[in-house]
Amino acid sequence: MSMEELKSKATHLKDHAKDYVQTYVQLAKAKATKGASNAVSGILIGVVAFFFAFFFLFFTGFGLGWWFGDLVDNRAAGFFMAAGLFLLLVVVLFALRKKVIVPMIRNMIIRKVYE
Q: Is the dihedral of CA 50, 56, 58, 61 positive or negative?
């Protein structure tokens, strides 16, 4: 093998290595962009869902308080009963937060990032 052939092969190897590195960098950027866009879209969907859930619970609580008030013939007592029901739900959520809620949210976020 002559020196010229060796130089030619080394040049080709260098060019291929450069192409490989550029392709790897572009692939890494594409993967990062996909992961970020999935995470942002998941967060956006979560915010919109929270917005609708808030209004759903607000009007449900209002209707429930009104209904309880009609049942006991005291509107204020009905709203306090509805508030008590929601307080009970908050206590249950608070009690389950470490074993159920936090792992569920963490898994959803991780799944969205690596999707």
A: negative
